[in-house]
Amino acid sequence: MSRARFRLIFSIVVMVAIGLIVLRWPGGVYGETKEGEEGPARAISMGAEYPSITVSAGEDVSMDLLIRNTGRSDETVNINIASIPKGWKAKIKTYKFTVSSIFVPGKENKSLTFQAEPDKDIKPGKYDFRIDAQTPDGQFKMVQDIEVTVKEKEKEDKEAKGVKLTTSYPVLRGPSDAKFEFSVDVLNETDKDTVFDLFAQGPEGWDINFKPAYESKYISSLRLKGGQSQAVAVEVKPGANAKAGEYPINVRVSSAEAKGEAQLTINLTGTYGLEAGTASGLLSLEAQPGKPANVSFYVKNTGSAVNNEIKFMSFKPENWKVEFKPEKVTGLEPNGLKQVEMTITPYEEALVGDYSVGVSIEGEKATKSLEFRVTLKASSAWGWIGIGIIVAVIAGLVGVFRWLGRR
Fold first, then answer.
1. CA 363/CA 166 separation, integer angstroms
2. Which residues contact 348 (CB under 8 A, 6 or more apart)?
3. Which of 10, 249, 327, 369 is deepest in the core (most CB within 10 A)?
4. What is the pTM of this model?
């Protein structure tokens, strides 16, 4: 092979190799990163929607807190409010819960809500909040400062012409374990698009959330065009130990320029429940035909409302008698206990054996039932009669034997 021909072949091989390397290089035609492998392995950041805002005295603060995971790995971020100015209450929550950590899958964003509520006597000035966040291993640490400037309330009454809240049913009534839902119409009376923050204040331990009408998702703010009205559902779940009574729910809708309020009321009737049994736990007794037998049982009010007119009914064998003392309980307070004496009189001609006597306890919107097993035994008089018969038979046999012996 000539030297010139060798150089030509070598040059072609080198050019082909370089071309293949270029095509396979990341960013080349065939060198694109596979889906799911783009970006760094771990990268996470945090930011407030409005790091610096101005509000009127007495106005609450609510804004989104964005957690952005641009890495490929799923991350858990611990988050807390490290600094809260004096005279303020603040928390980080989702649509429903107050949270201290959040899970953010890779390549996804999650948002939380930062809420701050001032005391009634808060003065104008600047108030600084500080939010700290970090991954459990401490590799990523984030800090977000939020500056809230409080200004004097303007003399002009903007609340009346800025936003208006109306509801057709401001009072709802039901048991303590029910879930209540109000419908509130929010009207933007301004001439421009406005984002209104939603707040609700109720008894401690109650769960209150906002939802768009006919939807299941929860919201913390509402955007309305000038002159637009929209219905918002206010969902209220009373606390677990809420007693019967009347409870106010204060709803506020506010923006930087306007604020509106609506007073809602929930009238709890309490829950109804009954428990019944015997002190020993046994539901059995012995009796004799025609003779009364006594047994006592208790009735307890396990609800949160007074249980009135508790009555007793019996389900017994034919010709048996069942009596209660007292015959009814006029009013049993929550957690109240009442002892009831029951007298069972079996039928005189009933046969020996086991019988069932049922008791139905019927209260106000609550019932309970018990079933007693009654073991019926023969009367002791029949025992003596039997003994007398046996003695007479023996005496008769003795007399017969003697008479036969004489013959």
1. 39
2. 289, 290
3. 249
4. 0.45
